[in-house]
Specification:
- The complex is a heterodimer of chains A (about 280) and B (about 270).
- Chain A has about 280 residues and is mostly helical.
- Chain A folds into two domains: about 50 residues, no CATH class; about 220 residues, MetI-like (MetI-like fold), CATH 1.10.3720.10.
- Chain B has a domain of about 180 residues: Rossmann fold (3-Layer(aba) Sandwich), CATH 3.40.50.
- In chain B, about 35% of the residues lie in helices and about 20% in strands.
- Chain B is built from eight helices and nine strands.
- In chain B, the strands form two sheets. A six-stranded mixed beta sheet of chain B has the order 5-6-7-3-8-9, with helices on both faces. In chain B, strands 2-1-4 form a three-stranded antiparallel beta sheet, covered by helices on one side.
- In chain B, a hairpin with a 5-residue loop joins strand 1 and strand 2.
- In chain B, helix 2 packs parallel to helix 4 and helix 6 packs across helix 8.
- Classes of the chains: A mainly alpha (about 280), B alpha/beta (about 270).
- Chains A and B meet through helix 8 and helix 9 of A and helix 2 of B.
């Protein structure tokens, strides 16, 4: 702070204005969204009160929060089930996506032959595929995993494939000159080069695997018994238990945000030393 | 300095000869036509010419990154040559951006299965030779253009290759940095006595560095004329400002102009 104040003595009005502006922006970046969020929640609360809306239609925020605490045992055990599906499917999406991408990278012919299948799998809505999965697969967890995996693996596959193929040509020549084997080229050149692309795909896949896990359970919920957050929502909907419905929704949202933040952090930590995307602006 | 020739060419034994080498690309462009060229051990040979004269293609052929359409490369009689005896420096530094300086220089040895610990003495020594001691843990992003090029040279030289191929390595650097790298490269060459084939489009650079300059002409790419740079090594800043150097540059420049004018067909710059 003293440094800035010392500077301020010699700053001309234009520069001083810029410094003030920057400081304001730094604070505003956090304060503004927070204030708007609080305002929105307050407005939600007021609308309920002003219009006398019954809590089975639109519960007040306080009631939702209370439900989150009261039903914590039920909701968090359900969250755990959903999280298990989410992370398992994300793990499988990483293994499957990277594995297929590496396979595709071995030869253009393999990629040309099989990439269309991946696209078909991606563009067909999972809700439409599910009845088929329901016929062929017995185990409930396997069903959910398969669904979430189909939704999540494509961004990883397509990004990693792109990354593996965007190696600098001179670097490739350099490896060739040094007699690198295929495996060495993959290990020391193509995989590290694909890392930023893979991490970009991972960030998308993280959110998608949560969505996949919830959607899959939704579709499965009608047929089988499961206890993830989606079935809590369906159940609460049937019982007109709006507070619990909201509480479950909030839990899903926060989980999604958390997954995104964690994956962003991982990505930043891995890339911070060398990749443009993770570097602070210099100069 | 037993092998590094004190003045002009012609002392060392033959290392490589290009005999009637031609290269035609699939799009019909004749990159090289009937090139005859002998490279002797200890040579610092520059390929000088306008763009499109095939000098980079010639380098890629020597490196084995491309195969000639006609003619042959004669590595002291045997047509095959161990690629690991070749060091290559690209126009760009071409470093692994995620790896630090040490790992980048280690790479050629690593690809041969040499462990980090075993490679350390060679890597450390090479980094000292290019004046980068203390930068082992910096990543390329943190280095200046000249320093990146030094890393690239260290990487090419860490395997102690017999021949170093350089494809306009200093073209993207500012003049002051280029001069410094020129000096340091010459110092390295005189100490280690390897063979250099140096592609450049700069008359001044080729005359300053080489004992032989091969001027090439374009369309089709071919050897136009070869001449010896008759000036003693070590060459340093004093040489750079000497009248001898100026005279040699003038000669070289005249040959280059001849090569450019000899190009048949319409003139257009670049590709």
């Amino acid at each position: 702070m003293t440094a800035i104040e010392e500077h301020a003595l010699t700053l001309d009005p234009e520069e001083a204005r810029r410094v003030r502006q920057e400081r304001l922006e730094r604070i505003g970046r956090w304060l503004l969204p927070l204030a708007i969020m609080i305002l929105a929640i307050w407005l939600w609360d007021r609308i309920c009160v002003w219009n006398d809306i019954p809590k089975y239609i639109l519960p007040r925020p306080g009631v939702v929060l209370q439900t989150l605490f009261d039903d914590a045992g039920l909701l968090f055990s359900s969250l755990l089930v959903t999280l298990k599906i989410t992370f398992l499917s994300l793990l499988l999406a990483v293994i499957g996506g990277v594995g297929l991408a590496v396979l595709f990278a071995q030869s253009k012919w393999v990629e040309m032959s099989f990439f269309p299948f991946a696209i078909v799998l991606q563009v067909t809505p999972i809700v439409a595929i599910f009845p088929l999965i329901n016929i062929y697969v017995d185990n409930q967890t396997t069903k959910l995993l398969l669904c979430a995996w189909i939704v999540a693996f494509f961004p990883i596959l397509s990004n990693t494939t792109l990354g593996l193929n965007s190696v600098d040509r001179n670097l490739r020549d350099m490896f060739k000159l040094n007699g690198a084997t295929r495996w060495q080229q993959l290990r020391y050149l193509r995989l590290p080069a694909a890392m930023p692309y893979f991490l970009g795909g991972l960030k998308i896949a993280g959110g998608l695997s949560l969505i996949g896990a919830v959607v899959a359970e939704f579709v499965a919920g009608a047929t089988g018994q499961s206890s993830g957050l989606a079935s809590r929502i369906i159940e609460a909907g049937y019982r007109l238990n709006a507070p619990r419905l909201f509480a479950a929704l909030i839990l899903i949202s926060f989980t999604g945000i958390l997954i995104f933040l964690v994956l962003s952090l991982i990505s930043h930590l891995i890339l911070r030393r060398w990749h443009e995307s993770a570097l602070k602006q210099e100069r | 300095m037993a092998q590094a020739p004190a003045s002009a060419s012609g002392n060392g034994p033959m290392l490589l000869a290009l005999r009637g080498v031609g290269k035609v690309f699939s799009n019909g462009v004749t990159a090289l036509s009937d090139v005859d060229l002998t490279i002797r051990e200890g040579d610092f040979l520059s390929l000088l010419g306008p763009s499109g004269c095939g000098k980079s293609t010639a380098l890629r052929l020597i490196a084995g990154l491309a195969t000639p359409t006609s003619g042959l490369l004669d590595w002291r009689g045997s047509s095959a040559f161990d690629r690991t005896n070749i060091g290559f420096v690209f126009q760009e530094p071409t470093l692994l951006p995620w790896a630090d300086v040490f790992d980048n220089v280690w790479l050629p040895l690593r690809l041969k299965g040499v462990s980090r610990a075993k490679a350390a003495p060679a890597v450390t020594e090479m980094l000292a030779r290019v004046h980068l001691t203390g930068f082992e843990n910096a990543v390329p992003r943190e280095l200046s253009g000249g320093m990146k090029m030094r890393v690239s040279i260290a990487r090419a030289m860490v395997t102690k290759p017999r021949i170093l191929l350089m494809d306009e390595p200093f073209a993207a650097l500012d003049e002051i940095t280029r001069f410094k790298l020129n000096n340091d490269l010459l110092e390295l060459w005189q100490d280690e006595r390897f063979t250099v084939v140096f592609v450049t489009h700069s008359v001044f650079e080729s005359v300053f560095l080489s004992n032989r300059v091969v001027v090439m002409a374009a369309r089709p790419g071919r050897v136009f004329r070869e001449f010896a740079v008759d000036a003693p090594y070590p060459r340093n800043e004093a040489f750079r400002t000497s009248p001898d150097y100026a005279a040699l540059c003038r000669q070289a420049s005249d040959v280059l102009i001849g090569a450019i004018n000899s190009t048949a067909g319409p003139h257009h710059d670049g590709h």
